[in-house]
Amino acid sequence: xxxxxxxxxxxxxxxxxxxxxxxxxxxxxxxxxxxxxxxxxxxxxxxxxxxxxxxxxxxxxxxxxxxxxxxxxxxxxxxxxxxxxxxxxxxxxxxxxxxxxxxxxxxxxxxxxxxxxxxxxxxxxxxxxxxxxxxxxxxxxxxxxxxxxxxxxx
Length: 154
Description:
Layout: H1 7-29, E1 37-42, H2 52-57, E2 61-66, E3 70-75, E4 79-86, E5 89-96, E6 100-105, E7 110-113, H3 117-121, H4 127-134, E8 145-147
Parallel strand pairs: 7-8
Antiparallel strand pairs: 1-2, 1-6, 3-4, 4-5, 6-7
């Protein structure tokens, strides 16, 4: 018999389902209005498919931006594939939902952070700092509200 309800894992499953639903809609209709996404994922996670040069440059985690130019967005049960432009070179990627660490839509101040037990041992970092690295100077940046599961854990 179970020791209790694992709300942390249930929340992670629900949040990954939300990301899948959002990406499915974007694959059908495109990004509406000013919506755009910053998605940080663990490049070491099983199933992540990125070019060797990207894996060398981002050996632990990588943040991608879905905004002005992307194509071939295909959303599956376990993850999504997309082609993004890296310095005028299109590169296909495959990201399992389990590899996603953060999902942020700054246009509406929405963000999700997936934390693991290893994250609790590390010094806290602010997601807005990570995002600002990726934002072009001429873009307006809105801080995102991040939902953390730590307050629900015992």
